[in-house]
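Bug #2210: token dump truncated for Cell shape-determining protein MreB?
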Amino acid sequence: MTPHSLEQLRRCTVAVDLGAARTRVYVRDTGLIVDEPSIAAVNTRTGSLIAVGAMAEGMAGRTPQHIQVVRPISGGTVVDIDMAQRMLRFLVSDKIRRAWRRKPLLRAAVCLPHDAEPLAQRAATETLTGLGARRVELVDTLIAAAVGCGLPVEQPEATMIVVAGAASTQVAVLSLGAIVAAEKVQVGGDAIDYAVVQHLRSRHELMLPTQGLAPLQRALCADPMEEGAEVRGRDVATGLSRTVMVSTEHVREAIHTPLTGVLDAIGRVLRDCPPDLVADLAERGVMLAGGSAVLPGLDRMIADATGMTVQIAEHPDTCAVMGLGAMLEGRVRPLHLDPLAT
Ligand SMILES: Nc1ncnc2c1ncn2[C@@H]1O[C@H](COP(=O)(O)OP(=O)(O)OP(=O)(O)O)[C@@H](O)[C@H]1O
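Reproduced locally. Full output below:
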């Protein structure tokens, strides 16, 4: 995050986070205007878009044959540029769409997962240029999220951030506006959901409907002391609808395995970090962001494994796009090192 790159970001009018689970758009002087699932429903006969965002998500698993529910972003990468553009156009309000058409030379900032492949960078850039952006600035999600959490990233002291999203979890130690050490593991909310689905299948012989996982997650989040939650699904053998009581304890055990991948990544980042910075971290602790940050017990698990305090960001799911927003509103100032100061 050099003064030069901050200057470039200040010229952007729109910030976009194309996440595997959710798409978020921030517009300068307006704020967050889109926070919707990265999903579209398409009529395969006519090719027309039927719904996007939450409405399309509600259709998943319930559509007739000629309607297909698609995800144009997979694993944090735009895999279907045309569909991603159509989805974004649909998600932004008429007013913004008209403004973009009137002012087709706008600049956009997009956050990308740490170490994104050149192909992923190009796909994100093309998605935005197709919508009228003249120039697209790419920002590492870890830096954007750290800014969005209010961490003093530009200061010469170490801060550690863990961004637990849907497709991946990214970990970094930052100092002086740059990444000192970072890791990305393909473990996020999706892997956790998969572990829960497998648990229900093997222990209860139950197949969960597409929409069934979120209520189960919410039940566990609402009261971590709750012994269990009732889940309705389809019996694997008979195909009939059945309700079972799922124990919170057993679900926690099932998700423990994918979560150890996150702990390993944190361990590797700490090992790669210079000792002086590790000492800073011991005092400051770890900031936990991303939609999966609120997964019950994740903060305690990280605290137990590292011996550091863990704080969940105030709005963990929107940290990255809000951080980008803060940068394009000019609320982040680079540290001015005065070489003549005594
Ligand atoms: N209350 C909750 N409890 C547990 N998990 C949750 C909760 N709310 C959201 N999640 C999980 O958070 C994930 C979405 O996180 P986020 O919004 O950061 O995703 P994203 O930015 O689209 O993903 P990525 O960064 O991987 O591209 C989903 O997998 C979802 O299951």
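Output looks complete on our side. Residues 111 and 139 are 5 Å apart (CA to CA). Marking as cannot-reproduce; reopen if the truncation happens again.
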